[in-house]
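so the lab meeting is tmrw and i was supposed to have these ready like two days ago... anyway. pasting both below. for each one the top line is the aa sequence and the line under it is the C-alpha cells. i havent really looked at them closely yet so no promises
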Amino acid sequence: MQGSRLITQEDIAPLARGCAVLGTGGGGDVRTGAIAVRRAVREHGDVPLITLADLPGDALVVPLSGIGAPTVGHEMIQSAEEPLLIRDEIERIFGRPPSAIMSSEIGGGNGVMPVAWAARLGLPLLDADAMGRAFPEVQMVSMYVAGLPANLVVMADVVGNVVSMRPVDGLWAERIARAVCVAAGSSALMADYVLTAAQARGAVIEGTVSRAIEIGRATRHESDPLGALARTLGAKRLVAGKVTDVDRRTTGGFARGTVTVEGVAEDKGRTLTLEIQNENLVAIEDGRALAMVPDLITVVDAQTATAVQTEGLRYGQRVAVLAWPCDPLWRTPRGLETAGPRAFGYDLDYTPVEEIA
C-alpha cells in the first residue's frame, strides 16, 4: 500500500475533535469513541490510512456506522464483537474477506470508531466517507446519490443478533434498517452499500479522514480558537450566545427537537432556533432560514471551539453556531432531493449558506 500513512495514538484526539465538528450535532459521541480507539490501537497496532488508488478494483470496501439515536448510543456502549460479526457475515455472503473499512459518515463517533473497527479486524481504513458530514438516514449517502444499488445491508447489535437484508433501494434500506434498529433498542452497528473499490471511485467523498484530523488540529495553541476553526472550515458565525431552551425527545430511532440560542454581546437581542433530527438541520432567525441542510451547522463551545453534540446541549451553555458549505455532491439535483430541506419535511427551497450570508 504505497500511498498509506498510519493513524497513531497522536492522531486520535484531533480526529475526534474534527469528527465532532463535522458531525453537525450527530454521528454519536466522540468521547467514548476515542477511548475505544485508543484501546484498539494499543492492542492491535496503528491503522493504515489508504486511498482508493491503493486498492485493486475488486477489493471489497465495507462502510460501517452506528445507527440509532445518539441519546441512546451515549449510554448503551457497543460490543467489541459487532464488527467481527459483520465481517464474518460479509465473508460468508461474498465468499471472500473485506479488504478495507470505510466510515459511512465522517461526523461524530461514526467518524472515529472505524479506526477501532479497522484495528480490531486487522484491516486498513479508507481515507473517505459517504457523507462528508453526518446525516440521520440510511439513504443519505453518496453511493445513493451516485445511483449505486443498496445491494446489501448487514446489522449487528450489542447482544449478538445479526440481520442481513437486500433492500430494493436506499429508501427501503432506511425503512427496514430503522425498524431493526428500534427492535435492538435504537442502537446497532451497520454495514451498508458494501461495494468494490472500482464501484467506490466517484461514488464516495475522498480525503475526509485526513480533513477531520486537520480540523481537529486547527485550534491547537491558538489564542482565538473559534476564529481559527471558522477560518479552517470557511464557516460563517451565525450567532454567539446562550442556550435558553432545549426541546429534545427520542422517537422512531432518532433524537428530534429544537434548540434556542439567545445572542449575547454583539449579538444581544437576536434569537436563533435550531431544528434537529440527530443533526442540526435548519437555523432560523425571525422566521428566516440562515442555514439549512445539506450545508453543515455546528454548535461549538464559545471559548474552546469544541463541538457540542445535540444530546449534550444544556440550558445556560455559552455557545457559537457555525455554518459552512457542504460537499458539491449534495448540491446536485439528486443530492438535494436526498438530503435537502424538503427531504426532512421543511417547506424551504435550498439556498447555499454563502448566498444567505
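ok protien two:
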Amino acid sequence: MYFEKRTARNRKYRKFLHSHQQKLILLGVFVFVISIVCGCSNQKEQESDGSLQKITVGIDKFEPYSYLDMDGNYTGVDIEIASKVFHELGYEPDFKFITWSEKHTCLADGTIDCIWSCYSMNDRENDYQWAGPYLYSRQVIAVASDSDIQTFDDLLGKNVGVQDTTRAAELFFHTIDSALPEVKQVNCFATTEDMFAALRKGYVDAIAGHEALLNELIINGKGKYRLLDESPYISKIGIAFQKGTHEELTQKINGLIKEMSEDGTIGSIAEKYGLDAEKVVIRGGSDEK
C-alpha cells in the first residue's frame, strides 16, 4: 500500500515537473523572440536616425593636402576628397594628426582606420590594403634662389633635407631606384616645418618632397627659393588600410574615386588648392594620364 501511494506521488511529481519544464521552454522562446524584435527595432532606429559610422583617418600636417585653416578646421585636397567619399558611403571621417614616421604602427594597432594624406602607393602595393590611386604627385627638389645647384649632378657632396619615412627619403637613401647622386648627408626631419626651417637657416643645401608641398615654400618665400626642373620620381597617391582588411570598402572607394575623377569633382578640388588638374588627376581611377 505504501509502495502504491509512493508510486502515485512520483507520477504526479513527474507530471508536474514535465509541465513546469514546458512552461520554462515556452518562456525562453518568448524572451528570445522579444529580444530579436527589440533588437531589430533598435537597429532600425539607428539606421533611420541619420547618424554615420565613424572612421578614423590618419593624416600629416601637409599643405595643401591636409592641414588646419586659420579657424582651426581641417582642410586641404585630401580632407575634402575623403569627406565627400566617406559621407557618400555612410561614414563620418574623424581626422587625426599622427607622427608620420609612426603611421604604420598607428594603423596596425587600431589608432587609425586608414592613412589618407598624400601617401605614395608606388613600391608599397603589398604593404597595405589600398584604395586608389587618385592623384599623381611629382617628387621635386627645392634650393635657395642663389644656390649653385641647377641639376641632380650638382647635389653630389651636398647636405639634403627630407621628411622621415617619405618617398623623398627613400630616393636619397637609394632604397628605391633613383638617378640622384650620392650626397654628403641626408638629414631626416619629423615634420615638414622642420625641413623648411633647415633650408631657411642654411643647415641643408636642398630639400625634397612632393611638388605641391614645396610649391608652398616657393610661394611663401617670395623669390627666396626655386625648384629644380628635373623630377626624380612620380608618385601615385592612394588610401592605405591595414593589409587584409576593408576589402569591400576599398572597392567602394575605388568606384567613387572613378566617378569623381570622371565628373570633374577631384579636379575641381585640386585646382581649389592650386594644383593643375590636368597634371595631377588620375583619369577614370586608373594610373593612365
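from a quick look at the 2nd one: Confidence is low (pLDDT under 50) at residues 1-10, 23-48. The first helix runs from residue 2 to 48. will dig more after coffe
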